[in-house]
Fold Co-chaperone YbbN.
Amino acid sequence: MQPRNMSMSGVVDLAAVKQAQEAKAKAEQARAEAARQGGTGAVPASSLVIDVTEAGFERDVLQRSTEVPVVIDFWAEWCEPCKQLGPLLERLAHEYNGRFLLAKVDVDANQMLMQQFGIQGIPAVFAVVAGQALPLFQGAAPEAQIRETLDQLIQVGEERFGLTGLTVDPGSDAGDPAAVPEEPAGPYDALLEAAVQALDAGDLDGAVRAYQNVLSDDPANTEAKLGLGQAELLRRVSGLDPQKVRQDAAERPADVAAQSAAADLDLVGGHVDDAFGRLVDTVRVTAGDDRNKARLHLLDLFEVVGAEDPRVTAARTALARVLF
């Protein structure tokens, strides 16, 4: 699913010359103090990814955001898309080598933070820059788009707030992925990687084939099922005219094809609840084969988002009320 808010538009509203000067002064003061005490001010690579709790949020996120952009990954153990996104963000945190800090928040253990940030579904990624929070994106996303977003975030931090990032101790490799023995490659890792690369390159047909190849041997492969659903969704909307789709859906509320296309656009745009609600309403006003087609399309979208997502659970309940 294409993530929403995958841009830095509006971030300049956070900027003020005074804030930038103060943030830069604080960072320079911290480095000067470290040098005075005989240290280099460098941090170990292992500190580039941290687990954050409600109790330590001010210290670990708000205060740190005055010297480096802090990217917050809201996740949970039961969230399948989180298991794809989390390791990617961790790898990028090490690769960017102190240009941003990754803070991981388990929403099950820190529900107050989830509420404060207005999180509606996970994975959700926010940033805090000089004490100011802004949304980055929601849902899994291609690596190329994530890199672009991080580059924009870092640029904003430098230009608007004077954030120069962290200096990483070159002698510390505790958090360096290259220093950690890699796990043996799984039987489908090459195919899954090929699918991701195809998605990044815009080759939706190639991505669909790669995921299907995995599922032909391993029908229960969760990563392949999720990826296939996302690739097929993107392929369906690739040739659509959004304005015409919206108009058709408004004029024909009982037309399953029109409502399904509009729901696909809703989902790609990150409006998950709107997509689900649209198809639940379509099931409500149709009957026979049309009702079944709407129901099946809704179930397909459930697979794209992930069965454990709370929004899927709520939509399943709504669907059951309509059907029974």
About this structure: The beta strands are 49-51, 70-75, 101-106, 124-129, 132-138. The two ends are 30 Å apart (CA to CA). The chain is about 55% helix and 10% strand.
